[in-house]
Amino acid sequence: MWGGMGILAILLLFASFVGIGAKELEQGQQTERIAGSAGDVLEDDPVGRLKVYVYELPSKYNKKILQKDSRCLTHMFAAEIFMHRFLLSSPVRTLNPEEADWFYTPVYATCDLTPNGLPLPFKSPRMMRSAIQLISSNWPYWNRTEGADHFFVVPHDFGACFHYQEEKAIERGILHLLKRATLVQTFGQRNHVCLKEGSITIPPYAPPQKMQAHLIPPDTPRSIFVYFRGLFYDVGNDPEGGYYARGARASVWENFKNNPLFDISTDHPTTYYEDMQRAVFCLCPLGWAPWSPRLVEGVIFGCIPVIIADDIVLPFADAIPWEEIGVFVAEKDVPKLDTILTSISPDVILRKQRLLANPSMKQAMLFPQPAQPGDAFHQILNGLARKLPHNKSIYLKSDEKILNWTAGPAGDLKPW
Ligand SMILES: *[C@@H]1O[C@H](CO)[C@@H](O)[C@H](O)[C@H]1NC(C)=O
Ligand SMILES: *[C@@H]1O[C@H](CO)[C@@H](O)[C@H](O)[C@H]1NC(C)=O
Ligand SMILES: *[C@@H]1O[C@H](CO)[C@@H](O)[C@H](O)[C@H]1NC(C)=O
Fold first, then answer.
1. For ligand 3, atom 13, which residue shows the shortest CA distance?
2. CA-to-CA distance for 160 and 194, rounded, in angstroms?
3. Ligand nearest to the CA of 399
4. CA nearest 261: which of 272, 248, 252?
């Protein structure tokens, strides 16, 4: 069951993990820089490197929608709201569109929730289209580039494909009118029609105060080897099995439910955040989408994320050395997870834990209120700044048109 390793060896190895307390990490380690240039990139200050113009839209595109359902402020797609608020008072904001490098259209497209709190993206295409029609007729900037110097925050499951079922999302593709814009989105999977070249992948929103409130003393030993809480099967939406998480979660359960090194279950205990701080490895398998908030929670709680999601594009991948922080396991290798994890040497584990202890790493995963240096808002701005200056070829000739306003499903063309 344990991949041929002797029980004694495992216990010895296990004992050494328990011994890696945060005390050692604190002693002189806090100033350790993240390898390579990533640390410098993370701590970059975007102020002075870009100017953003925020379009003023009628409140029906943003504030009114939020008034109808305040849950939009706490769910994992809340970045679209907090990014708007952040930009309104950010030093990179300019009130003079003539000097702007980037244009931002504040549309809350992910705030139409079912009674259970799941976002329904069905109106989002019409809403986006309506907003773009408005900015393109009231200001001259959209028509200049057809959106190539505009960015949109689209944190939904499959970004601007605006559907929660992958097949349907792929069929729809990225909303045509957003084809030239830069998308800031949670969804990230290589070679996927819903991830456009040049998009900025961000972490899902996880409530900073709530996580802060559950911090336990940093020298608490990590006595859990592998931790996971969540679904293994989604019987409601995938009754036959195999589609949900492409079977990876089911495989975790089938292979390791009786393995004492694996603390895994579907129960969501009240000590969930505390448990992550007592664990060495936290599984972050794909679900319906490649990512989940576990990735953020792992980083915040110093639990090494074990990423099981082939071809995932992680948040701020150009700034954060994910390969060095986490462990990547191919979906097909889930049955070997025990051997893979027990073969990682204590030195390597300690190094990953030190990187995770770096405050700039945690800061980059959060959208705090108010904003703080190096947080996810700043990483987004850094991502936008790194795309400047714009290629001159984005500016269209006065009568040139590239986008087709009537492309896409007929339903998307109805007024919003
Ligand atoms: C931009 O182009 C659209 C469609 O061609 C046109 O209706 C609109 O008036 C133009 N906007 C401006 C500000 O000229
Ligand atoms: C600008 O865009 C054109 C056309 O897409 C491309 O050929 C050129 O290499 C780009 N220039 C730079 C500096 O990226
Ligand atoms: C725009 O898209 C519509 C719908 O797909 C299509 O019928 C029309 O021919 C397209 N127009 C142009 C100019 O390509």
1. 404
2. 7
3. 1
4. 252
Q: How many CA atoms does the CB half-sphere of 242 hold within 13 Å?
A: 1
Query: Computed from CA positions of residues 91, 95, 99, 101, in that sequence, does the dihedral angle turn out positive or negative?
Result: positive
| Cα-to-centroid distance, 398 and ligand 1 (Å) | 11
Which ligand has the minimum distance to the alpha carbon of residue 133?
1
Ligand 2: centre distance to CA 384 (Å): 17
pLDDT in tens, the chain (416 residues): 334 444 434 444 444 444 444 444 444 344 445 554 455 678 888 999 999 999 999 999 999 999 999 999 999 999 999 999 999 999 999 999 999 999 999 999 999 998 888 888 999 999 999 999 999 999 999 999 999 999 999 999 899 999 988 899 999 999 999 999 999 999 999 999 999 999 999 999 999 999 999 999 988 999 999 999 999 999 888 888 888 999 999 999 999 999 999 999 999 999 999 999 999 999 999 998 888 899 999 999 999 999 999 999 999 998 899 999 999 999 999 999 999 999 999 999 999 999 999 999 999 999 999 999 999 999 999 999 999 999 999 999 988 999 999 999 999 999 99
Torsion of CA 12, 18, 19, 20, to 10 degrees: 120
- 202 near 318, Cβ under 8 Å? no
Q: What is the pTM of this model?
A: 0.90
**Going by C-beta distance under 8 Å and a sequence separation of 6 or more, which residues neighbour residue 213?**
none
Contact 415, 126 (CB under 8 A): yes
Distance, in Å, from the CA atom of 416 to the CA atom of 413, rounded to the nearest integer, reads 9
* Cβ–Cβ under 8 Å, residues 291 and 205: no
Question: From atom 9 of ligand 1, which residue's Cα is the shortest distance away?
Answer: 137
* CB-CB contact of 188 with 315 (8 Å): yes
